[in-house]
Design brief:
Blueprint (H helix, E strand, L loop, with lengths): L11 H4 L1 H14 L5 H15 L2 H14 L3 H6 L12 H14 L8 H10 L2 H24 L7
Helix pairs in contact: 2-8, 3-4, 3-6, 3-8, 6-7, 6-8
C-alpha cells in the first residue's frame, strides 16, 4: 500500500503579510468595547464549533489568564444547558456567536437577534458580531494552513 504525502500547506501570513495585519486590525477593532472575558468565551465557542484546535488552545489559555472560571470553560460547549453559570449577556452573545458561526438558510433568527439587542448597546452589539465574524475568519485561515499546536 502506497502512502501519498500531503502537499505542504501555504504559509499564508508569509505569503501575504498584509492579510495578517488586516486581520489583527479587525481583531483589535472588534474588541474595543467587548468585555475581555466575554470576548474569550465568544472566540472559544466559535472555535469549538469550527474545530480549530490552534484557536482553542490560544483562547482557553487567554481566558484562564483573565480569570474565566474552569467551570465555565468546562461546560461552554453546552452553555445553553448550564443554568445560571452564564449571565444573560453571555448567553445572548453565545447564541449570536453560534448563529453567526453556523449560518443556516434562515441566517440569524429574529429571536436570537432580539435577545442580543436587548443585552447590548448598538456599539457593543456591532462589536460582538464583528468578534464572532473575526474568530470565524481566523478559524478558517488556520484550517487551510493546518496551523500546528504549540508544544508546551
Amino acid at each position: 500500500m502506497t502512502q501519498t504525502m500531503a502537499p505542504p500547506r501555504l504559509k499564508i501570513y508569509k505569503a501575504s503579510p498584509e492579510l495578517y495585519d488586516a486581520m489583527m486590525t479587525l481583531s483589535t477593532a472588534a474588541a474595543k468595547v467587548v468585555d475581555p472575558e466575554l470576548g474569550e468565551l465568544i472566540k472559544i465557542r466559535a472555535s469549538q464549533l469550527n474545530r480549530c484546535a490552534f484557536c482553542l488552545d490560544m483562547h482557553t489559555r487567554d481566558a484562564r489568564k483573565l480569570g474565566v472560571s474552569e467551570q465555565k470553560l468546562d461546560v461552554l460547549a453546552a452553555w445553553d444547558e448550564a443554568g445560571d453559570i452564564f449571565s444573560a449577556r453571555e448567553r445572548a452573545a453565545l447564541a449570536l456567536t453560534e448563529a453567526v458561526t453556523v449560518l443556516g438558510h434562515g441566517g440569524v433568527s429574529d429571536e436570537i437577534y432580539r435577545q442580543a439587542a436587548a443585552e447590548f448597546s448598538d456599539r457593543e452589539l456591532a462589536q460582538v458580531v464583528a468578534m464572532a465574524v473575526t474568530i470565524n475568519a481566523w478559524n478558517r485561515i488556520n484550517a487551510v494552513a493546518q496551523s500546528p499546536l504549540p508544544r508546551r
